[in-house]
Each structure stands twice: as C-alpha cells, then as structure tokens.
Amino acid sequence: MFRKLHDPGAQAVTVLIDGQPVIAELGESVAAVLLRQPEAWSRTTPVSQSPRAPYCMMGVCFECLVEVDGLGSVQGCLTPVRNGMRIARQQGPRRLSACRKLSACRKLSA
Amino acid sequence: MQEIVGMQEIVGMNANETDLLIVGAGPAGMAAAVTARSHGLSVRVVDDQPTPGGQIWRGIETVAATPRLARLGEAYRAGAEKAAAFRACGALYEPDSQLWQIEPGFRAFLTREGQARRVAARAIILATGAQERPAPFPGWTLPGVLTVGAAQILLKTANSVPSSPVWIAGCGPLPLLYMTQLLAAGGTIAGFLDTMPRGRIGAALRHLPQGLGRLGDLAKGLLWSLALKRAGFPIIRHVAELRAAGEGRLESLHYRTQEGREGEVAAEVLLIHEGVVPSIHVPLALGCAVSWHAGQHCYVPELDGWGETSQANVFVAGDGAGIGGAEAAEPRGRIAALRVAARLGRLGEGSADAAARTERARLARALALRPFLDALYAPRPQVFAPVDETLVCRCEEVTAGELRARAVQGRPGPNQIKAFTRAGMGPCQGRQCGYTMAHIIAAAQQRPVGEVGFQRIRPPLKPVTLGELASLDEREPAA
Lengths: 110, 479
Fold this sequence. Notes:
The structure holds two protein chains of two kinds. Chain A is mainly beta. In chain A, a hairpin with a 6-residue loop joins strand 4 and strand 5. Chain A is globular and about 40 Å long. Chain A starts with a strand and ends with a helix. By secondary structure, chain B is an alpha/beta fold. Chain B has three domains: 223 residues, FAD/NAD(P)-binding domain (3-Layer(bba) Sandwich), CATH 3.50.50.60; 141 residues, 3-Layer(bba) Sandwich (FAD/NAD(P)-binding domain); 68 residues, Orthogonal Bundle (Arc Repressor Mutant, subunit A), CATH 1.10.10. In chain B, the strands form six sheets. In chain B, strands 1, 2, 3, 4, 5, 6 and 20 form a seven-stranded mixed β-sheet that branches. The radius of gyration of chain B is 23 Å and the shape is globular. The chains are: A mainly beta, B alpha/beta. Strand 1 of chain A pairs antiparallel with strand 9 of chain B.
C-alpha cells in the first residue's frame, strides 16, 4: 500500500510480523511498517471480524491496535520499532493471555 | 534533554510535582514551556509522540539532518529551531506518554512504557491540538482508506508514499500541501476529488478585507493550486458523495458530483480530508465549558483572554482552543504561560499584561485570514449526513441508519444513544463518531447541532491495562 523512498542503511532493524522477519527503520512506527507489507492490515474487529488498517497515524482512531511483544491493544502508530520486536496483528478482541507477562494480570486471570 | 534525575537537581522539587503541567509538545506546548521556564517555573511536558513538534513538525529533529527537509517546505523547516529551543529550555520532557486522567488539585495520571504514574501540578496547559474531522462514507473503514494527515505523517516520519498512484478526496489547505509535497518526493497522484461545494469562493470573499495582511498565505495557496494543475492529473470539482468498495481492502471508488456526474475508478489507496477540529476530550473530561463554533463547525472550549477555561488554572492553547494553525498556537501558548507565571507569583501582573499585549497582536495577525479560510473550506453538508449504510462508529460498528432510527424514539441525547447502540464506547471514545452522531441527532430531531452536545467523556481518556493500573504506586492519603 505504501513504499519507503530510501534504504534504511545503518538504521535498519528486523522486526517480526506474525512471525515473519521484516526490515524496518529505527524510529519509524509499527503502523508505518505494517502499511508497507503486502498484507497491510493491522487488526480484525471484535464485532464483525472485518480487517482494518492504520487510518489516522496520530493516535485518535485506534485502528492500528496490534500485539507488541505479547502485550495486546497497543497503538501501532504511537509505538516506534525496536530490533527484534514481535508484532502480531490483533484478531478480534484483545486476548487476555496477551498480557501474561505482567504479574498483575496473571494474578487476575488465575 | 534532561533526564528525570537531572531535572530534580535543577528545580529542587519532587520528581512527581511540578508548577506547570503541559499536555502536548506541539507549537503551543513548546512555546508555553519556553515562556514558563524563562520565568522560573518548573515545567513538565507530556506528549504521546516520541519526539517534539506536534503533528505539523512531526519528526522534524530527524528529518532536519536529511535532504528530505527541502521538499517538505518552509513551514515545516521552521520547526527545527523551535524544537531546539524547547529542548534547551529546561522543561522536563516526557515523550511516549499517554495522559489518561486529571483530577482536581491537580493530579494527572499518565502511562509511559507500561508504567502508570501520578504527577501533581499547580496549573495545567492543554496543548493537545487538533484531529482531522471524521468524514464517514460507505467503505471508509476499508484498509487502503486513510486520512491525508496520516499520509503526510508517513511521509515525514517514515519517508513513505503510496506505492501506486493515489486518489485524494477532500477540501482544505492540507490536501493541496500534501499533494505538493508528494509530487516533490516522487510520488504519483491518480486524481483529486475536490469536495469544495460550488459558490464557496464568493461566500469566502466577504471575509477577505480583514485578511489582506495575509496575502502571502493566499499567494502560497494559489501557487500550490497552479503547480498541481500543471502536474496534469485529473481534478474533479464539486464532489459531493463518495463510496469505497473492495473485498477486505479498497479496490474501487465511486463518486458523484453536486451536478450529478458520476464516476467509478480502480483505487488501492484513497486519502481523505475534510478539515480539522480541536481535540476537546481532555477539557470535556475536566468539566470545562465548551460552546459551538459556527464558523468551524465544532465545539471549542470557552476561554478568557488568557486561554483559561471555566475551570480555574486549566488553560487551553493551540488548535485545541479553536483552529488557528501553528502561527496562532505559539502566541496562545505564551499568553497562557504568562498568566500561570503571574498566578504563581513569578511575574508581576503589569509585566504579564505588557508581554501578553505583544503576543495578542501576533495572535490577531495569525488569525486574520482564518474567517476567510473557514468560509472557503467549510465542510460539505454530506459530511454530517452519511447515508444509512455508513458505519459511523468505527469501533463498535454502528451505522448511520441505526443512529437515525434511535434518534427519533423519544428525543434521546448523545449519551442515551451511546448507551442504546454502543456508538462511542469503543477504544477511540467517540473521537471518530461524536460529531457525526450529534449531527444525525440534530437532523432527526430538528434541533440546532450546537444544542445537542457531545457524548460525556469519562476517564480513562486512553485505554489503560489492569497491569498499568497495578503498576501505579498509589496510596490514599491518610484521613
């Protein structure tokens, strides 16, 4: 859907999108990287499971909700990429298991 | 940039206390911070973006060091020195931070990197800017439909452009600016669906005399338009209705003009823009009075000459106070900061008045062309009256038809319709459906839209996880 006009060069990092390694540039947002993928969607809706993609890129539409390193409902447009970041498109409502790494959540779901 | 520990040494205060909390690091927030620091206040600036500059100067610090700076234009370039002055002013700057609640007193709650914290402040300046006006039409939720502002952010922060010739639809200075920037960057445009209704120039001209001091801005707009005409892509005028279609993503686009001319084109990316509206969620949540701005078709906070809201020591500066652009945002930020400095005894009333006079003159100059622009680029009526099948609430997937059907059953207001339909209850908290819902209610009940009001805004202002709440080291003070 979108293409990058330059080669990130020394700023290149690798992130995983649904397990697939993808080259990104340090400092750009998760949403910007998603929009360059052949499958440019970011989530499916909880109500009708329709695919959605980043829409506003400034934090007000919440269409770019993804799982980042196991944490659900993260706004991709407000999240800069890091090397090795694990990004998963969010299918339907946020999974409770997605927040297991936080001890408070583990206590609540136990 | 100072780290938290360094800042404690500088201001000699607890890391969770500050004289002035500024929300937003765009033109207004940065200007307010610099002014407040110059009068010795401790200042904390929280912003949800990773770097300063707001939307207009997104990514300026990174881009300033690259050749890309030249093709983004003069107004963007101007942000580099503003960001540098802000970095050097001694304010504690907290990027990547989401504000989700402010309690009287003031106690502000924010989240940064999964950790929630509380900050005590004596005064607050909300410099949260604006968002693009939601302009729903069938298919606007399909992947491939984005706002023009979103595409401009992708150009500034990721140097990315649509990978195939892009369709752009809308009205206002931003589409013209973006198309100019896109062509300069080597992007291609499939066509522009200009949604400005017929007769707008005549309606706007009566506001021109007061804007004569701003002929430079008008000339800039005309130059953009001429350059775009020369670029040779189709420009279709008076587009009134849009419809996007596709299986799982945008594939085609249908339009209809005011004159009834229709067309259908293949499209992979469609960018839309129908103006901008102030971000009023925080002032609404704080109980600040707002009133309807007929010229800008939105609510604006009720402010005194210093930008103070109906809630004492809560100020609004920048586009959140009413759309005025970056040039108006800066004096508004400084005026509010002067008042806070005087309130806290760091500046004499007389000195604050004198300094504010200069800033108010700047503000008046910056706003001189605004009534002309508001009249010229007023949204087409269809923006507020989408056809029944249109999803109005993107989060909870509620259609215009469902809202219309509810709106005529017993004259409900926005909060009742929200409860009936869930429209406005999703993660965006009405940021994408609030105005459309208000207009649908107004039309169904034959009331002026300004009388309908906005959905009640409740904390948290941004979604917070239980884990983040649990991370808050919060003990109730002993009674």
